[in-house]
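G., the chain you wanted modeled:
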Amino acid sequence: MKKFSFLCGILFLLSFATPTIQYNAQQIVDKAIENAGGAKFDNVMIRFSFRGKEYRSIRSNGRYQLERVVFSNDGMTHDILSNKGLSRTIESCKVKVVDSMVTKISDGVNSVHYFANLPYGLNAPAVHKELVGESKLKGSAYYKIKVTFDQEGGGTDYEDEFMYWIHKENFTIDYLAYKYAVDGGGIRFREAYNARVVNGIRFVDYNNYKASNLSTPLSELDSMFDKDQLKLLSKIELDDIYVYDNNDCC
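Predicted structure as tokens:
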């Protein structure tokens, strides 16, 4: 009788326990995007500077325009990447971009905007997301999301592989890693810091680390980071950030 009463007591307590919510990769990414700005990304103009260059993005109902302005001895070079392709002006005069440079310029413009606006973009049609595990970094628990791309719509670097560490409670991307093939290939691991919200959109800077062994799986970089086995290469810092609703700036 005592054993029966004990079991009943255990079942009674368990009935009040809060069930653990199980999320899939898509739900985790959705929450991360919502936490970083959500639908605001779809109709907004964002300006910032990065390493002496000026950047601006305009998005409106599926249309986009990604810009980069560079000042040099040749004057002001203005690159615009949009749904229509790439265009370039130098000192406000339109110039023809030779075919061999179109991809390089486009990738250079797109990559800066891509990282600046993460996690926006992770729900693009060419993106594949997979929850590959969980881990702890600096005492916090994270989901580990692997991202790959289709060849069609995945850009010239569609074979690159990404990993995102998304906080299990805050749903922020606090760490990310990627493996790329261009220029001999490489592996990078980024630690986010200096998080701030500008007019409803979250931005971060990064400590940018390198893994020397190109065969290192991205999923192992978190433990290598904890053991100080990665080399700090640079800092990725965005300055002079402005965010405008399209109705306010157009």
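The helical segments are 2-14, 25-36, 99-116, 221-226, 246-249.

Shout if anything looks off.
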